Amino acid sequence: MTACDRAAHAFRTVFDAEPDGLWCAPGRVNLIGEHVDYAGGLCLPMALSQVTAVAVRRRDDGRLRLHSEGFDPVDIDPGTGRVDGWGAYVAGVVWALDPPGFTGVDIAVVSEVPVGAGLSSSAALEAAVALALAELCGLPTDDAGRDALAAVCVCAENDYVGAPTGGMDQQIALRGRGGYALLLDCADGSVDHIPVDLARHGLTLLVVDTGTGHRLVDGRYGERRTAVEDAVSRLSVRSLRDLHAPEDVDSLDDPVLRRRARHVVTEIARVQDAVARLRAGDIRDLGPLLDASHRSLRDDFEVSCLELDTAVDAARSAGALGARMVGGGFGGSVIALCESSRVAQIEGAVTAAAGRHDLPRPRFLHAVPSPGARRC
Ligand code: GAF
């Protein structure tokens, strides 16, 4: 059964009615361009085939009722009540979108995107709900409409949930295309779709979920964002994007700010390099860029951890062409670009390395560039 079928089934069981419709939105991995979205940088995420599905039915009493197996149910009046935890990602979208003629909804949620794995399960939930409400309330859902919905989801996450994230995850969840990564220019909001044909090159993008949860509301993500803003103000530039060479950050006296800024400047350059290599059809050449991105996130931005480094090192030693942590960091997942013929061997090596360090047993997904949010 697909996630959408399961959401429909859960809806009938819990709410004893037929949903008005089913929608889903994908998780994501970011090929490269990490921790630069809130710095006006470039990132290159792609949507996964794993989705979060919602079954939705309008109500007429203004209430918001939510069900997701294994999580506390929610039943509030979003006009007056607040909700914390997983329901905040849905209530936040209702609050931020404030859809015309909203008279309440029942929603059943089923997710194939692992929660807390750095694969953007929260943005997938926000995007699926935003698209459902937009369609039910007659709001535009063309590309411009989706751009606006992504902004609504960021507002929900920043101002309702309280996670100071950038906009990359919501953009890819709503605007991803099958077979393409999304080149997102966070300075002016423009996008381009870059073909990523892994299968034609005999390659697999392996995702290693280290089983170590990551959270974006625990302060460390926000500290990194504040450090970047601090560096911008001390360097008297509008954005670190205005710097052209890593040496331009050397005038920062504070060594920590210098490292943080160097990550942003070098990571943006790596995205430009990656896009040029993809356009030239040289997907294998992404390997060294992934490695360099990981070193920068580990040493300059300091958002990696033992679990992520262990998975990256094991994948590389077992023959991956390149590997790096993805998402906010401090736990979560790693991507490894692999010859498809070596995937089993690399998965075995990563699992063995986790065992040697007494870490949780990792789980594996294969990232296939997939479409963004849609009705199912
Ligand atoms: C998380 C955030 F939600 C994104 O906005 C982005 O900053 C990412 O971490 C790091 O690149 O996924």
Structure description:
Belongs to the GHMP kinase family. GalK subfamily. Residues 10-58 form the Galactokinase N-terminal domain. Residues 89-176 form the GHMP kinase N-terminal domain. Its EC number is 2.7.1.6. It contains ten helices and 13 strands. With 376 residues, the protein is an alpha+beta fold. It folds into two domains: 3-195, Ribosomal Protein S5, domain 2 (2-Layer Sandwich); 199-367, 2-Layer Sandwich (Alpha-Beta Plaits). A six-stranded mixed sheet has the order 5-4-6-3-1-13. A four-stranded antiparallel sheet has the order 10-11-9-12. A three-stranded antiparallel sheet has the order 2-7-8, with helices on both faces. Helix 2 packs across helix 3 (121-136) and helix 3 crosses helix 5. It is globular and about 60 Å long. The model has no long low-confidence stretch (mean pLDDT 96).
CATH architecture of the largest domain: 2-Layer Sandwich
Q: Which stretches are low in confidence, meaning pLDDT under 50 for 5 or more residues running? A: none
Radius of gyration, taken over Cα atoms and rounded to an integer in Å: 20 Å
Write the CATH fold name of the largest domain. Ribosomal Protein S5, domain 2
> What number is the mean pLDDT?
96
Please write the string of helix (H) and strand (E) elements: HEEEEEHEHHHEEEHHHHEEHEE
User: Structural class, please?
Assistant: alpha+beta
Q: Write out the strand line-up for the largest beta sheet, numbering strands in chain order.
A: 5-4-6-3-1-13
What percentage of amino acids are in beta strands?
Answer: 15-25%
Number of strands: 13
Main sheet: strands, sense, barrel = 6 strands, mixed
- Cofactors, ions, other ligands: 2-deoxy-2-fluoro-alpha-D-galactopyranose
Count of helices? 10
Give the distance, in angstroms, between the N- and C-terminal Cα atoms: 13 Å
Q: What overall form do the CA principal axes indicate?
A: globular
